[in-house]
């Protein structure tokens, strides 16, 4: 019954599993799906941090390389918000620190591709380096902004 509920009404399934755990009825748990969901929650934490790192780097690239002037304050505001979210995740889930370097490395090529496509949308011809010009510490530093407001 639990597997069928899992497939057709996830919310009900979670409520049932929680009730079984509270009642100590471990033998009645849908262990297979429960394990999958627990593993998925961990992966989700990593993906969320990777996404935030990607967005932070994208905004740093915009600030560093875009000749545009008007959206700069908006980019800085968004950058501050993404950094605050990343800081919260790292504080609430300290073990994410163990994965931060790897997630940073995975996020860079994604941020680079996004930046190139964004610049192209606005007709900006910008040469983004292959290697990330920022360190993880700079990306997470709420006070760090690129030295050069724009490159030509």
Q: What would you say this structure looks like, in words?
A:
The chain has a domain at 45-140. 20% of the residues are buried. The radius of gyration is 21 Å and the shape is elongated. By secondary structure, it is mostly helical. The model has no long low-confidence stretch (mean pLDDT 94). α1 (2-8) runs antiparallel to α2 (10-23). The chain has helices at residues 2-8, 10-23, 31-65, 72-92, 100-121, 136-140. The chain contains 6 helices and no strands.
Strand content: under 5%
Protein structure class: mainly alpha
- The ordered string of helix (H) and strand (E) elements is HHHHHH
Please summarize the sheet with the most strands: none
Distance between the termini: 63 Å
Number of helical segments? Answer: 6
Cα-atom Rg, whole angstroms? 21 Å
What is the mean pLDDT? 94
Global shape: elongated
Total strands: the figure is 0
**Percent of residues in helices:** 55-70%
Extract low-pLDDT stretches. Answer: none
Topology (SSEs and partners):
Blueprint: H1 2-8, H2 10-23, H3 31-65, H4 72-92, H5 100-121, H6 136-140
Helix pairs in contact: 1-2, 3-4, 3-5
């Amino acid at each position: 019954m639990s597997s069928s509920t899992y497939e057709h009404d996830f919310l009900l399934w979670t409520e049932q599993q929680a009730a079984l755990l509270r009642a100590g009825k471990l033998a009645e748990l849908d262990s297979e799906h429960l394990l999958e969901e627990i593993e998925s929650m961990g992966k989700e934490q990593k993906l969320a941090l990777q996404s935030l790192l990607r967005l932070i780097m994208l905004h740093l690239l915009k600030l560093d390389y875009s000749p545009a002037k008007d959206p700069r304050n908006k980019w800085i505001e968004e950058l501050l918000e993404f950094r605050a979210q990343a800081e919260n995740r790292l504080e609430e889930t300290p073990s994410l620190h163990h994965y931060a370097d790897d997630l940073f490395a995975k996020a860079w090529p994604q941020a680079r591709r996004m930046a190139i496509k964004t610049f192209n949308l606005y007709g900006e011809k910008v040469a983004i380096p292959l290697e990330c010009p920022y360190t993880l510490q700079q990306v997470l530093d709420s006070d760090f902004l690129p030295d050069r407001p724009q490159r030509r």
